[in-house]
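Workshop exercise sheet. Pairs work together: one partner reads the sequence aloud, the other fills in the structure field after running the prediction. Swap roles for the next sheet.
Pair: D.N. / O.F.
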Amino acid sequence: MFPGQYASEGGTMPLVKGLADRVQKYVAKTPPDITGARYAASKPLAVRRHAAGAGAIAEAIELARNILESKGVPAGQQGVYYAFVEKVRKAAFSHTGTTLGNYIAGLKALFAQKGCDPAILDILSKLIVGE
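Structure field:
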């Protein structure tokens, strides 16, 4: 079995989910016969809202991928940077100003301890929050 391959199906699994993968998973996890008629009526709206929310995360990952490749970060080490980007994006959804800055500074310190390059973390955080 190769990395990223399902053991049971013999197929390959994408290492990083894109927007289409996220929306397909969301749709598959909410069948109307289980979630009920009320949800079935509002599912088109829910899927659009999920796509809008997941789109920001998927876009951040794709932009980070381009930066990491241009900085020469090997593919096997990019996952930690993607985790950083997702945590920064999540924080940016609910925090602003000094609180967000302090939170990101803490994340940078944490991910630097995990072996990430602080200069690349700065670039990625500026990409997400624009500071």
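Discussion prompt: The chain has six helices and no strands. What would you look at next?
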